[in-house]
Every structure is written in structure tokens, then in C-alpha cells.
Amino acid sequence: MGRQSDADPGVAFAALGNELRLTILRRLAAAAEAERDGLSFTELYDELAIDSTSQLSYHLNQLDGRFVRKSDDTYALTQAGDRVVRAVRSGTYEQEPTFEPITVEGACPRCACTTLSVSYRERLLTVACADCDAIVVTYDLPPPATEDRTSEEVLAACDRRARNDLAVALEGTCPTCGGLMAVSVERTDEPAGYSCRADCSQCGICLFAPVEARLLYHPGVVSFFWSHDVDVTSLPFWRLLPLVETWEVEPDGSEPLPLTVTVVHEGERLVASVDTDLSVTLLKDL
Ligand SMILES: [Zn+2]
Ligand SMILES: [Zn+2]
To answer: Which of 55, 65, 86, 139 could be stapled to 125 by a disulfide with Cβ–Cβ 3.0 to 4.6 Å?
Structure first.
């Protein structure tokens, strides 16, 4: 566990907080793309508009070990440096995404409205009831997701990403940084039920989803719905509610987990247990 100093975000951002250092990272990325092992000090010095070699030494020292590694006289990007260049190129740090609002069909958790409005607000792509504004689902919207796509395509792309992120997160791995995620279930009031929660111990990101969503990744549940001509693997999150509202979710004891979930569809039932690590076991077909 010798990585605590690396994880200090203040030190990491200070190392990046300079245009010249970002330029160094970009040049090293371009060298890697040209299938070169790296650039020498002299090559970097010749390429950069810089006043002195001591200035370049200073900036390379600030990046060294975390974003840049030196072997012999050659500098190259580390994986962290490579991630920084990708994030800068994709505009993740610089742009605000643009999104033209649309409406989609779905179900409001609070009223009977079936029209949902989709808009970008408070830095999230938000699907909410067009009538009472109850929020149905929110998505992360990185600026590259909006390029060359219609609003409908943007929403579909965000949903696919969220579906994959959630699959990884609920199994205990952070989709953002790869760190260990602690998973749990908590009661919710609106809508009344149970919500899965995954918290990353490293980057602090937290993902929520109704516990019913966990079951939609189980092959037995997928095939149960497939036998009813329903493909739950492509069901967007904003259409989840009508599918799951007849299900029954009951804790086995005083703690939320384990939970017994009865999946109900067209008069048929499938009973599953969600254990403390959020693993799903099918109990029986009824
Ligand atoms: Zn509503
Ligand atoms: Zn993380």
C-alpha cells in the first residue's frame, strides 16, 4: 500500500497547474504515437519555447515519477500522464457540453405522467417528469459524448455507458479509477423501495441504482424476460420503472441485506436473493 503520497490530489494538480507542463505531456504523447520510446532532454528543449535548460529541468522534476518517467536520458509518459493527455484532448476539463432538450416516453415515479423531459442541468444530463419535475435518472455527460450526435443519440450513449459502469461498480470495482468499491443497500422513500449504492474508496465517486436494476444483469433474469420477448439488456434506465413496479422486494431480516426479490411479469414469477455483496442467486421459478 505504498501509494498514499501519489494519491494526494493537491500535489498531483499542482504538478499539472502549468501550461508548459501540459505541453511537455502533449509532446511526449505525440512521440509515443510516432512509436518513439520517448524524447531526450535536448529534443524537448529544442521543441519548446523555453528560456533556459534549468527551467526545463525544473518542470520535468515537477512531473517526474507521477506523469513522466525518465530512463537513461529519455523521458516518456507514465500511464497517469497518458490519462491526463487523453482527458485534456477530449475537453473533459475545459468545455461545457451542449445539449438541446428533448422529451422521451417513460414513467414518472411520483405522478401518472408518461412524458419525461431530458436536459443538461447542474452538470448532469437529467431525465425528469415533464409535469412534476421528479427526477427519474441522471447521467454523467462528458463533452465528447455530444459531438456528432443528436440529443436522442447522446441520451442513448449516456445510458449505455451508465449501464456498463453500474455493472462494474456493483461487483466492487470503480468504473472511473479501478479502485475498490464498497457496496451496500439502503431504504429509499421516493420512490419507496431499496437502492444499491457503490462507494469508491479511492476517487470518492458514488453510484446509486434501484436494487431491481441489479437483477437485470443476472443471466437467469435476462432469459426470463427474453422468454417474454423483452430484452432487458437494452432497456434504458428511464423505462425501468414500468417493468419493475409489480416486483416484490422484502428484506430477510432486520438489515436491508440479504433481500428476497420476486420478479413478476405477465403472471409469471421468478424469486431471487440479493446477498450482502450484492451477488444474486435465483431461488426458484413459480
Ligand atoms: Zn411526475
Ligand atoms: Zn474510483
So the answer is: 139
Cα-to-centroid distance, 5 and ligand 2 (Å): 17
What is residue 140's three-state secondary structure? strand
One-letter identity of residue 100:
E
Domain boundaries, the chain: 9-89
- Supply the pLDDT for residue 92: 65
Lookup result for grid cell 493527455: 85
How many whole angstroms from 6 Cα to the centroid of ligand 2?
14
Is residue 183 within 8 A of residue 198, CB to CB? The reply is yes
- 9-89: CATH number: 1.10.10.10
Q: What is the pLDDT of residues 37-48, one digit of tens each?
A: 899 999 999 988
Report the candidate in 164, 114, 156 with the shortest Cα–Cα distance to residue 134: 114
The continuous run of DSSP H or E covering 31 comes out as: helix 19-33
Q: Which residues, by Cβ under 5 Å, contact ligand 2, an ion?
A: 174, 176-177, 179, 200, 202-203
Ligand lying closest to the C-alpha of residue 177: 2
Distance separating alpha carbons of residues 81 and 87, to the nearest angstrom: 10
- What is the CA(184)–ligand 2 centre distance, in A? 16
Rounded distance from Cα 131 to ligand 1 centre (Å): 5
Any idea which ligand is nearest the CA of 7? 2
Categorise residue 204: left if φ over 0, alpha if ψ from -120 to 50, beta otherwise: left
**178 conformational bin, left if phi > 0, alpha if psi -120 to 50, beta if neither:** left
Calpha distance 163→176 (Å, rounded): 13
